[in-house]
Amino acid sequence: MSTPSDNKNLLAVVTGASSGIGYELAKLFAKEGFSMIIAAENEKIYSVADELKISGIKVKAVQVDLASEVGVSDLYREILAFGLPLDSIAMNAGVGVGGPFIETELAAEINIIDLNIKSLVTLTKKILPDLVQRGTGKILYTSSIAGEMPGPYYAVYAASKAFVQSFSEAIRNEVKESGVTVTALQPGATDTNFFARAGMIDTKAGQSKKDDPAVVAKDGFDAMMKGKDHVVAGSFMNRVQAVASKFTKDSQGAALQGAQTKPNSLN
Asked: Is the pLDDT higher at 3 or at 257?
């Protein structure tokens, strides 16, 4: 088993690291002594880097919009320039939009696709060949149990997470003999700013009991380090929901999710 002193010569990358699950993942990598690149679209990423540097590790903060092709290219350029081999990458950046599909802004929905899907595929395409060539590396994708069933009132978000889950399992199978592992992290409702940003505070899901992002991140980090294919993180009820979805028709699943995500569903 590697020690923090061993890991200082290895690079870990975390996207969406300025808050929530990504921030907690970054702290876990720092605790294990990895040198790091942390990325987010807002300037808070610099204060997070300063916080992590207190532990004595090398940290590079990159403020970048990964929903753009330029942003992904800029982050990849930083990875190449860092001077250490990429060992682990947690692709956690993501966004959602709530509300009836006919009422949401098209640009906001396309932004979900660009960030949750396009950037993840593009960054994977850039970093995976080198990992496979070296015969080592770990990838963690933040998926969601929301991707297990159709998601009315956040339809594009739920579909994007279904994509991430499928993509993760497919790439894992392709590289299974290479020494590279691919893990999908599937949280449920987590105590982050997701619901506020998505405009879903007035929903049952938005007001439901939520998991601690530190607990969710630890579940994902441990699964990644063990090379597991996926982990349903957080509460026991998340695991129940994930299992139940396997035996639920899509029409029934859509009705169940819609009851939780419908605007003004608290009334």
From this structure: 257
What is the distance of C-alpha 257 from the center of its chain?
21
Contact 11, 65 (CB under 8 A): no
Query: Is 157 considered catalytic here?
Result: yes
Cross-sheet strand order for the sheet of 86-91: 59-63, 35-40, 11-15, 86-91, 137-142, 180-186, 230-232
Catalytic residue from among 138, 153, 157, 262: 157
Nearest to 37 by CA among 68, 63, 56: 63
- Residue 74, pLDDT above cutoff 90: yes
Please list, residue by residue across 49-80, b when 16 or more beta carbons sit within 10 angstroms of its beta carbon and e when fewer do: beebeeeebbbbbbbbbbbbeebbebbbebbe
Whole-angstrom distance, CA of residue 175 vs CA of residue 125:
13
Mean pLDDT of the chain: 95
Helical pair 119-134 and 69-81, crossing angle rounded to 10 deg: 30
End-to-end CA distance of the chain: 52
Q: What does the pLDDT read at residue 235?
A: 86
Give the pTM. 0.94
**DSSP-assigned letters across all residues of 148-191:** GS--TTSHHHHHHHHHHHHHHHHHHHHTTTTTEEEEEEE--SBS
Catalytic residue among 118, 138, 161, 262: 161
Active-site annotation holds for 161: yes
Please tell me the distance from the alpha carbon of residue 109 to that of residue 51, in angstroms, as a whole number.
Answer: 33
Res 220 pLDDT > 80: yes
